[in-house]
Design brief:
- The complex is a heterodimer of chains A (about 140) and B (about 140).
- Chain A has about 140 residues and is mainly alpha-helical.
- In chain A, about 70% of the residues lie in helices and about 0% in strands.
- In chain A, helix 5 packs across helix 6.
- Chain B is built from seven helices and five strands; from the N terminus they run βααβααβααβαβ.
- Chain B has a five-stranded parallel sheet.
- In chain B, helix 7 links the parallel strand 4 and strand 5.
- In chain B, helix 1 packs across helix 3 and helix 5 packs across helix 6.
- The longest helix of chain B is centred in the first third of the chain and has 16 residues.
- The model of chain B has no long low-confidence stretch (mean pLDDT about 95).
- The chains are: A mainly alpha (about 140), B alpha/beta (about 140).
- At the A-B interface, helix 1, helix 3 and helix 4 of A face helix 2 and strand 5 of B.
Chain lengths: ~140, ~140
């Protein structure tokens, strides 16, 4: 199945309101199943282990299918692929992080982090930028 | 703690056109939200129905095919949301779309982020409710 069709089909299935359920023969680690059962009975994280499992699977699929669609978009428009700096700014803005108002510091930090750690994440950049700012404040 | 990410009119419109000057910024937010979702964090992106109308987002139109793939949920203008939006609009004199954004903000149970070209109106319709603003 071509990727575009797969994305469309997954979205269609995720949007389905069909109430039909089925038993699966999916094998999961026993310890994981037992941990889920305790989380449901003792911590109340979900009404049942079935709902807990289904919700986790749904959330993962919803995120993954969007990431796949975005990846196709970036293949078509490579100039629109966000840089690490763009994503660090986005992460700060989304959370109302104190450094969200300092995009230049975040962009500088992204460059510095990426030179040392090519696989750095936006969260790594935020941590680096906080450290840079903290050092600057201490020195002042 | 879960987070609801809401889009305003211009944020929605930027998704239709890759050449839109805000497209990259909004896409960065969508990418961030869904990366977190895959990592197990609870993040939902959504658009209030009145905002979708104002932005002209017709999910059946081919021009919106890309936006349709981003799993941005609709927040319907049901009875409760309509009552809340009407009340907000009366108090703040904002547009119908912004009033519905306000109703969605005020009904949210967790953290809220709004991607908007008009932060001042968003603060007005939030009416004191904490909201993180992504200004585009």
């Amino acid at each position: 199945m071509p990727e575009y069709d797969a994305i469309a089909r997954i979205n269609e299935l995720l949007d389905s309101t069909d109430p039909e359920t089925l038993n699966t023969s999916m094998r999961i680690p026993k310890a994981l199943r037992d941990a889920a059962a305790i989380a449901v009975s003792e911590l109340g994280v979900a009404p049942s282990t079935t709902i807990l499992t289904a919700n986790a699977l749904r959330s993962m699929l919803e995120g993954a299918v969007v990431l796949a669609a975005l990846e196709r978009h970036f293949e078509e428009y490579p100039e629109l692929r966000p840089t690490l700096a763009d994503l660090a700014v986005a992460a700060a803005e989304m959370d109302g992080h104190p450094l969200a108002g300092q995009p230049e510091l975040l962009r500088r930090s992204a460059g510095q982090v990426q030179r040392r750690h090519p696989d750095a994440t936006p969260e790594d950049v935020l941590l680096w930028a906080e450290a840079v700012q903290s050092c600057a404040e201490s020195a002042a | 703690m879960n987070r609801l990410v809401l889009l305003d009119n211009e944020a929605v419109q930027s998704l239709r056109d890759p050449a839109h000057r805000k497209h990259l910024q909004v896409i960065s937010q969508i990418l961030t939200a869904n990366t977190r979702k895959v990592q197990g964090r609870s993040v939902q992106t959504a658009v209030p129905g009145a905002v979708r109308v104002e932005a002209g987002w017709d999910r059946t139109a081919a021009t919106w095919a890309f936006a349709n793939q981003l799993r941005i949920a609709d927040i319907p203008l049901d009875r409760e949301q309509a009552d809340s939006a009407a009340s907000i609009r009366k108090r703040t004199q904002v547009s119908v779309a912004d009033a519905h954004l306000g109703a969605a903000i005020q009904a949210a149970t967790g953290n809220v982020t709004v991607i908007t070209s008009d932060p001042r109106d968003i603060h007005r319709v939030a009416e004191g409710r904490r909201v993180d603003i992504v200004a585009i």
